[in-house]
Amino acid sequence: MKVEDGLGVEHLRFSEDGDAVIILDQSLLPNETNYIRLREREELFEAIHELRVRGAPAIGIFAGYASYVLAKQSKAADFPEFYRDFLSNKAYLGASRPTAVNLSAMLDRMDRVVRANARQPIPEILDAMRNEAILIQQEDIAMCRAISEFGLALVSDGFGILTHCNAGPLATSRYGTGLGTLFLARERGITLHAYCDETRPLLQGARLTTYELQRAGIDCTLICDSMASIVMREGKINACFVGCDRVAANGDTANKIGTSMVAILAKHYGIPFYVFCPSSTIDLSCGTGADIQIELRAPEEIKEKFFERPVALPEVKCYNPSFDITDHELITAIVTERGIIRPPFFEALREFA
Ligand code: MRU
Fold it and tell me: The pTM is what?
């Protein structure tokens, strides 16, 4: 099956023989368009950890594909042995990145499929796993489309939208969550102007969001993260649109580092701040944002990556949290495929989860 994203780029799929996952290596964009074939446990793990595949929904889809590809390599003679192999791969892949709930949620979903087919011969279990992985991706496309339709109710022609990180087709399968409304608006003849935070330190905003928007012919302007305040002050921004990796029961949300800064600024300037995500991102087991594990990453990403020469002395200490928590009081609404959730979030989220 061929799944294309909003750009006409097929960035995540099975190989023809189903032995491997093929991804567009997002860590090299926009300068190199390089597809890689991944089959081994270590390289599948590395692809998630090094953000070759990234964005909460895309990681979830990839996890489904990867668990099938690994299950196919199992030499197990019976179900208990097959399931032991599956659980070992599940734990291994699940440890690659901690913050996005999608990774563990989709591995759990594959787990349920394996257990539901426990009495079937192993080739049939594999068929069921393959179908489920493809279904996860198809559902993601429908989900993004529905989120984007709801998002259209929040914009008017000529709106300036501030974006942070990348929540577009590359982070999902098609349309995206936070960016989906911009793609759909273009299809409907509504003009929106995006101001895209570059999103230090890994520059997903500069490298991926402007790449996607520019190619789709959507007006976009790249800014450094530190410029968000001035563009808001100058009246260029009517709304902020961001994605999300996990929503806690009280409405606190985890998203790419710097998101909470945008939300605080938006509150200051009286600009609505919208979070876009599938309802599966709501994790009621986390009471508040304090319960969400924040991924910590290597100092080199701050000091060396993307620079010709290091920008700080090697001995300088670095703190590199990859996500932050946006307090629910700063969020105007959470937009899901099932509708727009407005405060008070604690009650409303229970109905949507
Ligand atoms: O570290 P990344 O690039 O995986 O972080 C991605 C984000 O923070 C996205 O905004 C989030 O995953 C939502 S993607 C639709």
Answer: 0.96
